[in-house]
């Protein structure tokens, strides 16, 4: 598999190996800022016994995936590797095109050259459909990505499907909803806000916070990928959502409530450019293969908060390290502007009360 040192990939590897669904996994990962060997540190016993092997490398390097495939008799490639954060793609899309588009092209070439007997599952996202104000997208709906991240994922999806159509390459795609749970890099909404609340830091909500996401617990996502891989059909796309839609402000308030912190930590800051208002998926196709969500949002969020509370050893080195510089660059000016606006408003209302 590729990209297994990140959030969803590491949860997938742990699930598959601990439940002995597969005998062996080789994990090729570039170890970008989001890839972290600590996510799989508990698999040392399997590394010794040969059940798990880690290889550091870039999926976009021509020939690398093909060479690895030639070393062993693999049944499947599951490709999680991507640049995955929308905000970073707005600041600089270069790495998104390199990994998500060129890198996926290299993976496709390797699987195509390998021939039959190997299937590729490409892990994609609900964001390729773009926003939907009402109702839900089905797998046959048109792709209309709204930001550079989702455009690069949509380009990869179309390449994957084109290889299935043109060369008969045995590929399939899952399109997952917003995922949360243990080991998520603290740049995404839920882990960022949990860790900020623990430190009594402000919560930077983009705009009015009324955008809606469908929240999928990471182990439900991992099981859905396994279902698609083992029971799905070649050439098909499977939506993977949770039917747990929440507005961002609701998620924020819930995190504050679980951690018993006040709502005045919330800051409404300048909105994300091109912010998609809502994502929603129709998942009947994967459900017909037997997959069901098992974790509802309230339980999953409590489990996730508990994990971040217990695992400061995991997230503090990230937040105190390279993430700090990103946070400053991305949030400092907008947080300051929000504070000044709030200051002006409270001064105006104080003056109003005085007159
Ligand atoms: P992540 O950012 O946590 O991890 C990505 C992993 O890919 C990291 O380990 C990184 O080192 C690795 N990687 C990046 N570029 C690479 C390259 N060129 N070669 C090899 N490895 C490389 O991402 P995630 O949240 O675990 O997402 C995994 C996949 O699922 C992505 O494809 C993403 O688009 C998709 N997805 C994510 C979500 C979500 O909410 N997180 C939802 C739906 C779909
Ligand atoms: P995010 O976790 O970045 O996932 P995505 O953009 O892929 O959906 O963001 C989830 C939602 O939370 C999205 O509507 C943007 C919003 N958001 C904030 O309001 N503040 C933040 O600091 C972040 C990171 C996200």
Provide the fold topology:
Blueprint: H1 7-18, E1 25-29, H2 44-49, E2 52-56, H3 64-70, E3 76-79, H4 86-91, H5 94-114, E4 119-125, H6 148-167, E5 171-176, E6 178-180, H7 189-198, E7 203-206, E8 212-217, H8 218-231, E9 237-240, E10 245-247, H9 248-258, E11 266-269, H10 284-287, H11 297-310, H12 312-320, H13 322-354
Parallel strand pairs: 1-2, 3-4, 4-5, 5-9, 6-8, 7-11
Antiparallel strand pairs: 8-10
Helix pairs in contact: 1-8, 3-5, 5-6, 7-9, 7-11
Bound molecules: nicotinamide-adenine-dinucleotide (NAD) and thymidine-5'-diphosphate (TYD).
Residues 2-3, 5-9, 28-32, 34-35, 58-60, 80-82, 84, 99, 103, 123, 125, 153, 176, 178-179, 185 line the site of nicotinamide-adenine-dinucleotide (NAD).
Question: What features would you describe in this structure?
Answer:
By secondary structure, the chain is of the alpha/beta class. The protein has 13 helices and 11 strands. The protein has helices at 7-18, 44-49, 64-70, 86-91, 94-114, 148-167, 189-198, 218-231, 248-258, 284-287, 297-310, 312-320, 322-354; strands spanning 25-29, 52-56, 76-79, 119-125, 171-176, 178-180, 203-206, 212-217, 237-240, 245-247, 266-269. The strands form 4 sheets. A 4-stranded parallel β-sheet has the order 3-4-5-9, sandwiched between helices. Strands 6-8-10 form a 3-stranded mixed β-sheet. A two-stranded parallel sheet has the order 1-2. Bound molecules: nicotinamide-adenine-dinucleotide (NAD) and thymidine-5'-diphosphate (TYD). The site of thymidine-5'-diphosphate has 12 residues, from helix 7 and strand 7.
């Amino acid at each position: 598999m590729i990209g297994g040192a990140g959030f969803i990939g590491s949860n997938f590897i742990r699930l598959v190996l601990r439940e002995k669904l597969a005998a062996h996994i080789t994990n090729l990962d570039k170890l970008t800022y989001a890839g972290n060997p600590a996510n799989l540190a508990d698999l040392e016993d399997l590394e010794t016994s040969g059940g798990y092997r880690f290889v550091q490398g870039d999926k976009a390097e021509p020939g690398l995936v093909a060479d690895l495939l030639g070393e062993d008799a693999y049944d499947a490639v599951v490709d999680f590797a991507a640049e995955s954060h929308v905000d970073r793609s707005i600041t600089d899309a270069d790495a998104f095109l390199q990994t998500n588009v060129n890198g996926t092209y290299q993976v496709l070439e390797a699987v195509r050259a390998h021939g039959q007997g190997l299937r590729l599952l490409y892990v994609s996202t609900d964001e390729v459909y773009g926003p939907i104000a009402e109702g839900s997208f089905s797998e046959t709906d048109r792709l209309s990505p709204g930001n550079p991240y989702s455009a690069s994922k949509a380009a990869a999806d179309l390449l994957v499907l084109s290889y299935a159509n043109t060369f008969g390459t045995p590929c399939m795609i899952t399109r997952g909803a917003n995922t949360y749970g243990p080991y998520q890099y603290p740049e995404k909404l839920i882990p960022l806000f949990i860790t900020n609340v623990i430190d009594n830091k402000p919560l930077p909500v983009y705009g009015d916070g009324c955008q809606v996401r469908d929240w999928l617990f990471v182990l439900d996502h991992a099981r859905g990928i396994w279902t698609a891989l083992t029971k799905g059909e070649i050439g098909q796309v499977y939506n993977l959502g949770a039917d747990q839609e929440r507005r961002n402000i609701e998620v924020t308030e819930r995190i504050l409530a679980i951690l018993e912190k006040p709502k005045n930590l919330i800051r409404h800051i300048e909105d994300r450019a091109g912010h998609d208002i809502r994502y929603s998926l129709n998942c009947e196709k994967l459900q017909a293969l037997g997959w069901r969500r098992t974790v509802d949002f309230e339980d999953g969020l409590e489990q996730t908060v508990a994990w971040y509370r217990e695992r400061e050893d995991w997230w503090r080195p990230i937040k105190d390290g390279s993430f700090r510089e990103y946070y400053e660059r991305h949030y400092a000016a907008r947080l300051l502007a929000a504070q000044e606006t709030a200051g002006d408003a409270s001064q105006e209302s104080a003056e109003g009360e005085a007159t």
